[in-house]
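Researcher: Here's the sequence for the chain we discussed earlier.
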Amino acid sequence: MTEQPQPFRDPRLPFAKRIDDLIGRLTPDERIAMLHQFAPAVDRLGLGAFRTGQEALHGVAWMGPATVFPQAVGLGATWNGELVRRVGEAVGNEVRAKRAEDDRVGLNVWAPTVNLLRHPLWGRGEEGYSEDACLTSAIAVAYTRGLRGDHPHYWRTAPVLKHWLAHNNETGRDTSSSSVRPRVLHEYDLKAFRSAVRAGAVAGVMPAYNLVNGRPNHVSPLLAQQLRTWSDRSLVVCSDAGAPSNLVDSEHYFDTHEEATAAALRAGVDSFTDHGQDSSVMTGRVRGALERGLIDEHDIDTAVRRLLELRFSLGEFDPDLDPYAQAADFDTAGHRALAQEAAEQAVVLLKNDGLLPLEPAAGTTVAVVGLLADACKLDWYSGTLIHRSTPLDGIRERFGAENVVFAEGADLVRFKCADGWLQVPAADAGQGAPRGAQGALDPALVAGRTDLPPLTCGDTPTELALVDWGNGVITLREPAGRYLSVADDGYVRASADEPGGWIVQETFRLEAVEEHAGGHRLLHVGTGGYVSVAAGGVKVAAPGGEVPGRAGSSGTVFETEVTERGEGAVARAAASADTVIVVAGNDAHINGRETEDRTTLDLPAHQERLWRAAHAANPRTVLAVTSAYPYALTDAAAALPALLWTAHGGQAAGTALARVLAGDVSPAGRLPQTWYASDTELPGLLDYDIIGSRQTYLYYRGTPLYPFGHGLSYSEFSYSALAAERAGDLVRVSLTVTNTGSVAADEVAQLYVRAVAPSVLRPLRQLAGHRRLHLAPGAAERVGFDVPVTELGHWDVAHGRWTVERGAYEFQAGASSADIRAVTVVTVEGEPIAPRAVLTRGLEAADYDEQLGTAIVDRTKADEDAVTPIAERNELLYRNCDFGAGVRGLTVSASGRGAVRISVDGATVTVPVTAGGGPYDYRVQRAAIAASGIRDLRVALDGTVRLARIAFTGEGE
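Model: Thanks. This is the structure I predict for it:
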């Protein structure tokens, strides 16, 4: 007889039965071991090791060479879901191909990032798609479908969405709390996750480091109350790196790690990413929690079951049936062409007074200048480049190298000290592989080179290229192109091909020394130590310490000699050419990245000087901005005839930009976020109340530099015959888009909706759909959108539910959120908005209509919200409270010490709060109050009060 396979090995059985069988065979310790990111093999059952977490944001990251696509924000700028689906498919195939060669590569990919780009100073803005939930979810759905594949049972890769929830700041990211009112939560932050999960191609989520409403995301009740209600699939929740320990170590939310681990597991975290590959610490904490009765085996088995379902879906137990097991597509011609197509579609034409496109012609010269003109910048979540095209490369190829002049615009400097000139010793730098080329499970541990001699001082100076990236942060590069960098031994060497690493070792600051006229100390930003010349070479002292061999010195004083200003070289190049392309932007590892928010929208002064010098020398100047985020380019927009923007475009960025400049491709990228005119237009970085502070294009009433959805074309398009009608649960909208120009081009038709006469503050307009289409000159296409009626609704705080309000809704079609070409109105027979039934429901403190000077905090460590003052002048407003025939009393549930002042119709009742048992010691206080009919109610909070809720007593009670 043929031996029957163990049930968990039997592909004829459904996954659920196979998982039941396997869990029954695992010992308690084996099950606990599966809860760590690096789950060990179970040899006795033939189970291999498994790890969660393979970065794949815009290509396979951290594991060596791979196809590098545009940054995520650049993919968002394409507004093209079908393109992004193909990118996801290519990335998924490369994950599989690399996995076949290197078992360190995981199939559970941590991508995409669906945090909304609420604030343009967020350091990780490059990782998201858009400030709009509709666009973000559409692009995320496309990318995850590509990553997942289309087989009904087996997945190409298993995508995990990052970062749950309301996470838009790196400043204090593991200790700050995002105060998110219910309307913003349901209408904005949850929306991007919800749509992507419901589409069925998401395997799970990763909680963010921050807290939301005073409670860490890793113990959020919303994982159960929201996330896991959106899908029949048992979604896996993977912690962010080190976050489980943060619950005790930095957040001090729990007293012990056993309590913290138990709380996270019960809240829904399944896989703990902590202490690197050493699983013993976290599994020890799980065992400790189990022994203390904080969790039981059911809690452990629930998480293991989810993780096993993910592994079964990836074909681990059915290699012969896995349709993706033999995937070998890696760096194919198709992938290279797709990388170029994506980079081309991401280019946004911001302004064009007729200068573009530039027609390549014999004898016509182009000056390519700027700090990013010959750069192909990567970010923390990039793979290692196999192919590389800079703007200079692309323009030389397209326009002819003989027709192109180049000037970078770096300042050329020499440093002198008492020991002589700073110099880079002659050495064979070799053909060292780029940083991370061999791949690393933790690239933060990749060390700098120590095989080259450190800098010295002597009679012959080395001329260095100095770039000021803003905020006084500079890089220094020697003539052969290597950046000055500091390795683990503290010595300064010319050893890095680019700035990079978790802690960047290639950035410095020049700090003036008062007692030395014109003298500066050179501070190494990565270590916080000063550069000093010592006997063994140039070295960095420990912060506050001394360099061996240089007693009594905390840093050498250098005199800086500038041999050439960058703007001089740029002006000469610009004057010698017919047209100038200034390429400006950011290095994605400096002044804005994971762990570091930006401080300003301004373009760094060094780059301001360069475009101004180019324009003064040649009025035919184009500014091409290559950056991970928006800039306030107010002066440039007013002065220059043409501006473009693209995110860092990956391996084909230069070729793509050149083809757009030459008119081979008509630009059709659209801005995925608002470009504000100045810093003064921005709310506080930690202000997550987009409604109250009027953030994003949804609520912002000012005039932006460039609006959400903006982007120009080399052609012209008309919008006509807009129609909308109710069809069951949908509003069917259609319109005709016609290419009225002379150039074949893409257009992005955008559909917005607004409530005409809402009872509460609603968005000025909100994206309801979009379509990127290609039209030949004179061609027209009828474009249709099916808008679910539920998308017209809002979260009704008065009744704690989603509501579509009865009334008129205006559908707007156009080329951007500010360029509306056609309008039509549909009347929806929705729900009438009823007043607050305060006699039966009371008032939950967080369910306010407007607030000033307060923050939402955790009512308990497990669930629910309260409100506390953060400013002496504060107020909570609850509109349309129905007191019926009258009330005679109220009860206040609050903790802390101080008072709650409640005002109705000009009369104020002050309720003292004297709970002294800590923030979670809620006491009920009673007071008399007289009110009847429908009235607004206002509340002010004094002291350390945390207000949970207010209830009312009717006249007859």
